[in-house]
Design a protein that fits this description.
The complex is a heterodimer of chains A (about 200) and B (about 140). By secondary structure, chain A is mostly helical. Helices cover about 80% and strands about 0% of the residues of chain A. Chain A has helices spanning about 5-30, 35-45, 55-85, 90-105, 105-110, 120-130, 135-160, 160-190, 195-200. Chain A is globular, with a radius of gyration of 19 Å. The N and C termini of chain A lie far apart (about 55 Å). Chain B has helices at about 5-45, 50-60, 75-85, 90-95, 105-115, 120-130, 135. With about 140 residues, chain B is mainly alpha-helical. Chain B starts with a helix and ends with a helix. Classes of the chains: A mainly alpha (about 200), B mainly alpha (about 140). The interface of A and B includes residues 45, 165, 179, 182 and 188 of A.
């Protein structure tokens, strides 16, 4: 177990819900913390009666939604002015991603909640292109309810075996992240599978 | 479309093709790592038959003193007391802990402050927890 994770787990055991809130909030904002492993551990601690499952769930949901909204508002308020001041030329592939998110904001916000650091990128882009806040909040909350519940419940389900399974689960997380990266590359490159193109043309 | 723009576009397409190839390669490596981990779990009987898994998972929250090796340096004494259902004063008396922060103190922190090595303290703790079993039964 790495030192950062060990320190976070000690912090969680010492300060319970306050620690859980802070870890998940800062991880949602931008810090690359092993938040999924912490959630798995919190679920396991809940199965042992050391934490309350529902209180942990409400805490992590609140922390994640607030962290996501922080990113969204930061990008919405300062994103355009910072890119203008720094004379950053938006590359065409970001432009394409931007167009994709504009066309499918709900799908993008909802599904990126399940893919590690992808949610931070989606939050920032959603804020930058000014997706409506109500829409962002709704799909962010819905995505977070499902994604946080399933990790926390998985920890609860595994109980004392959570450490044994954390390795394989983190690999599964990375597999999802790489699949997401492939999807982004496909969107950016504008590639359409022949079958899909044919169906669209026929229609 | 200007020539420069066209060349830039072609360059980006090449970049995307390389990124795509790297991502697919990473996916293949991750898949092999997943298989490796899966086989390890299977070998250690964590992934066995459905009935054996269900039996194990039914007692997922329960830890007995026989599971004392489960104790890790990042755990607090409070947590150890809780999961092994130990009276709060038990470890304090057995290990002779004088730190005022007990039990809200991690094992690692205590070892550092008391100038003890973890390789000495952990077996001591495991022994203390395991020997609590006859008293609790």
């Amino acid at each position: 177990m790495n030192e950062i994770l060990a320190a976070l787990l000690s912090f969680l055991l010492l300060y319970k819900y306050v620690a859980l809130f802070l870890i998940i909030f800062f991880s949602a904002v931008i810090l690359p913390l092993p938040d999924n492993t912490v959630l798995l551990a919190a679920g396991a601690f809940a199965s042992q009666g050391y934490l309350s499952f529902w209180l942990s769930f409400i805490t992590v949901l609140l922390a994640n939604v607030l962290g996501d909204c922080f990113d969204y508002f930061l990008a919405k308020r300062y994103g355009p002015s910072v890119t203008k001041r720094l004379h950053v030329k938006i590359p065409w592939y970001i432009d394409r991603l931007d167009r994709y998110i504009r066309n499918h904001p709900r799908k993008t916000i909802f599904f990126t909640r399940f893919i590690g650091t992808a949610d931070v990128i989606a939050n920032l882009l959603a804020g930058f292109i000014k997706v409506s806040w109500q829409e962002f909040l709704l799909w962010d909350t819905l995505g977070n309810i499902l994604s946080l519940f399933y990790i926390l419940y998985l920890g609860y389900f595994l109980g004392i075996y959570w450490m044994t399974f954390s390795g394989i689960l983190s690999i599964v997380g990375w597999i999802f992240f790489v699949i997401f990266a492939i999807a982004v590359i496909t969107i950016v490159s504008g590639y359409r599978p022949r079958l899909l193109t044919k169906k669209i043309t026929d229609a | 479309m200007s020539d420069a723009h066209h060349h830039g576009y072609a360059g980006m397409n090449r970049f995307l093709k390389i990124a795509f190839a790297i991502a697919v390669l990473a996916l293949a490596v991750l898949f092999f790592l997943f298989l490796g981990q899966y086989r390890t779990l299977q070998r250690e009987h964590y992934l066995g038959t459905r009935s054996s898994m269900l039996t194990a998972l039914k007692s997922r929250g329960a830890v007995t003193p026989a599971d004392a090796t489960f104790i890790q340096p990042w755990m607090t004494f409070d947590y150890v007391n809780h999961i092994f259902s130990l009276p709060p004063a038990y470890l304090q008396a057995t290990i002779a802990i004088t730190d005022a922060r007990y039990p809200r103190l991690t094992i690692e922190e205590y070892a550092e402050d008391a100038h003890l090595s973890l390789s000495t303290l952990l077996p001591q703790l495991q022994q203390a927890v395991a020997s609590h079993a006859p008293q609790s039964q």
